[in-house]
From TrEMBL:
Residues 1-11 have a biased composition (Polar residues). Residues 12-27 have a biased composition (Basic and acidic residues). GO terms for cellular component: extracellular space. The keyword Coiled coil applies. Residues 1-27 are annotated as: Disordered. PANTHER family: PROTEIN FAM184A, PROTEIN TAG-278-RELATED. Keywords: Coiled coil. This is Uncharacterized protein.
Length: 128
């Protein structure tokens, strides 16, 4: 009987050792899987960081391009405005010159008429 109990205990010990070995193998597999998943998570985190950096770079480039475009447009508008102002100033100067000339001609005409009228009056007063 003692021998049967001892044999039963040995079988139980072997079963427990076998179960312990399987549990250790399963634990080892789970640890490998955890390490793999952790590595994959870190890799994905790095990939996301790189994607974010790339997107930020593209956004900054787009902002810079847009700002350069607006600055160029503003400069073009300023140049156009300066050209139009120069044309208006030139037209204004020509108009003033024409008016001055017409005024001068009108004054000369009035002066000539005054001299002619004065001579007529002198002739009339001499004849009277």
């Amino acid at each position: 009987m003692l021998q049967a109990t001892q044999m039963t205990q040995e079988v139980t010990i072997k079963d427990l050792e076998s179960e312990k070995s399987r549990a250790n193998e399963r634990l080892s597999q789970l640890e490998e899987e955890r390490a793999f998943l952790q590595s994959k998570t870190q890799s994905l985190d790095e990939e996301q960081k790189q994607q974010i950096l790339e997107l930020e770079k593209k956004v900054n480039e787009a902002k810079k391009t847009q700002q350069e475009y607006y600055e160029m447009e503003l400069k073009n508008l300023q140049n156009r405005l300066e050209g139009e102002v120069a044309q208006l100033n030139e037209a204004h100067s020509k108009t003033l010159e024409e008016l001055a000339w017409k005024h001068h001609v009108a004054i000369e005409a009035v002066h000539s008429n005054a001299i002619r009228d004065k001579k007529k009056l002198q002739v009339v007063s001499t004849n009277s």
